[in-house]
Write a structure and sequence with these properties.
single chain, 179 residues, alpha+beta, 2 domains, two-stranded antiparallel ribbon, 6 helices, 54% helix, rod-shaped
Length: 179
Amino acid sequence: MSLSLRDQMLKAGLVNEKQVKQATKDQKRQHRLEKKGAVEVDETQRQAALKAMAEKQQRDQALNREQQEKVERKAQIAQIRQLIENARLPKLNSEDYYNFVDHKKVKRIAVNDMVRNKLSSGSLAIVKHGGGYEIIPREAALKIQERDAQRIVLLNVVSEAASDDDPYAAYQIPDDLMW
């Protein structure tokens, strides 16, 4: 059984029966006067408590919002990782490289002729992944770009209108020409 504060103080010998009765009597008298309106009720403590509760609620809401943003960011990173891992092309081991710029530094990735043409035409894109670079299809790159545009290193624009107006369209490029 738990004892009330009064009983605990009596048992400990901090107060005597007379003091307990006097405190109870004063408390009842105060309560009765408050009901009749004879004594003004001290609202400052109540208002301070309400203000403290409102501030705590605001802090809690801000913390919840931050936690929710962290959870959403983690989910977004997981989605990007999954998109890249599912759509990436296998790494090529070749002597032919495709050069591109990432943060003012020239980087290169091994490619073959078909991959080079598709990267140039915009059918494929290069993205950052796990400290390296991966080549993925354009559709996956567009989905990643919606979530985090900084992960896209190279995504060329597909321009079909330029090929229609090309004055050199009738001329063929030699197969052995390398840029």
